[in-house]
User: What shape does this take?
Amino acid sequence: MLLLTGNLQNKEPDMGYSKEIYRLAQQELDRRRNTARDTAEKHQAEIYSAIPRIREIQKELADSGLRAVQAAIYGGPNSPQALSSLRIKNQALQMERVKLLESARLPADFLEVHYTCPKCQDTGYIINRRCECLEKLLRRFAYRQVSESGGLGECRFENFLLSYYPDIPNQDGKIPRKIMAGILNSCQEYARNFLPNGESLLFRGHTGLGKTHLSLAIAYEAIEKGYGVYYASSQRLLDKLQAKQFQRQAKEDTDYQEMAENCDLLILDDLGAEYSTNFTVAALQNLINVRLTESRPTIVSTNLNTSMLTERYGERSVSRLLCSYRAFTFCGDDIRMIKRMEH
Ligand SMILES: [Zn+2]
Assistant: This one.
């Protein structure tokens, strides 16, 4: 196994994704590069023992390459002739190698390193620009993280069904389907025009009205655009933050606090469902404040009404949340119940 350090280590994450996502992407690039080189070494060892002449050819090619470099650097009156005779000799050696490989029924490029991405040779960068293979990996890991924590990888705008919402007025005289169509529309627009310094959203309403579904549909589109999204239920996130706080040093590599504070979009699902302590209240207040101060968007969903929120987090935090976030109140009947009854 070759030990190699990738190019990524020297590069600061320039946008969006958390350090954890970069670490995972780098790990995958290292794995690909090492596998490619290991395979080439293995092929070389096999072929050298089967056809020893190929080892000689490889050596001669390397020597003549070195001589060509010397001729080019030191020049001299004979260097053009020297270079052209070296070139002719190289071509002959390469031809001989192809023939030998052919006779062993092997492809002409059998001894070359076959990178997954030949463009960047699995380093993730072309000069200083991120290669598209790295972009793809970052998106893949970001998306995996969202679906792992949500367990709801299939939530998209396309499968958000308005037909589950009643189209007759409720006791407030509002037609849930009409209200929800408006909310769906606003969320689609938000996702389409998503910006890492855009608005924060507050989804309010009872359980089972599609708050998580729409948050994840937004998350999906933001990730597709290459933004770093961190999704967590408030209980889960607070567990992580608390573990870190009390162990002083996290055993895991992931810095959840850093990720929650700095990702392009934080989705804090089910605020108020967490087990409440002085620590959790302070941690949530701090998180919401940091993100507002830095103008980073957050989507908070909650089943609690204003007075319940105030009781938990204090008037100041709640009024901050209500003033600075664009609020949507979901309505209708519990969709999970309806779905269960349908089956
Ligand atoms: Zn690449």
Remarks:
- The pocket of zinc ion is lined by residues 117, 119-120, 131, 133 (CB under 6 Å).
- The radius of gyration is 29 Å.
- The first strand starts at residue 125 and ends at 126.
